Amino acid sequence: MAEQERAIRTRRAILLAAARVFEERGYQTATISEILSAAGVTKGALYFHFQSKDELAQGVLAAQDQNLVIPDRPSKIQEIVDIVSLHTYRLLTDPMVRAGVRLTMDQLAHGLDRSGPFRSWAVPVRERLERAQAQGELLPHVVPAETADIIVGAYAGIQSMSQALSDYQDLVVRVSALLRHLLPSIAHSSVLTATDISESRGNRVYEEALRHTETLTATI
């Protein structure tokens, strides 16, 4: 058990080091040597867990998904807001998430499959939109799959703009503005009056999701 825990810690240390290097340097210019130096591990230890720079990058992309479970809400529009708010909070507080986003948006990362995060975002948003549609929250013209892609794409652009202009200092403000502009075009006004899109929502959802996920894990 101690050896297994040590291997888990080593793998995590390598991923964190890779995240820092990828965030600072980008995928194309980052090197295994830089990641080794940042992680403080041997080449053998790194290659035991990851066979290439591509595998390291995919590990960082996958690690940004912390598998936090947001509790069910009566309003599925609120759940979509909470997905967006939670990711925004984690983008501001978790270097692994920031590195994953940098890799996802890195158009110079030739040969790296950057599609995974877009798909992993679009699926839960589409599912909530489908449920929202079934319970009458959406306007008649909404096509869930199309709208999910619009929400994910718009968020990607807003976070990229925030990173370029203020190094994410204004991200929460920009995301709140994005939601205020997007939601009236897809949901009934009666739904929106009860939807919380406040700038402090992300922190509260994060704490709630942690407790909810821990409870679910304990019952398994």
Structure, explained:
The protein is mostly helical and 220 residues long. It has 2 domains: 2-61, Orthogonal Bundle (Arc Repressor Mutant, subunit A); 76-219, Tetracycline Repressor, domain 2 (Orthogonal Bundle). Helix content is 71%, strand content 0%. The model has no long low-confidence stretch (mean pLDDT 90).
Descriptive terms for the model:
220 residues, Tetracycline Repressor, domain 2, globular, Arc Repressor Mutant, subunit A, 2 domains, mainly alpha
Write the layout of secondary structure elements.
Blueprint: H1 2-25, H2 32-39, H3 43-49, H4 53-63, H5 76-93, H6 95-105, H7 115-134, H8 144-166, H9 171-182, H10 189-192, H11 201-219
Helix pairs in contact: 1-2, 1-4, 1-6, 4-6, 5-6, 5-7, 5-9, 5-11, 7-8, 8-9
Number of strands: 0
Please give the CATH class of the largest domain.
Answer: Mainly Alpha
Radius of gyration: 19 Å
What letter string, H or E per element, gives the SSE order?
A: HHHHHHHHHHH
Q: Can you tell me the CATH topology of the largest domain?
A: Tetracycline Repressor, domain 2
User: Portion of residues in helices?
Assistant: over 70%
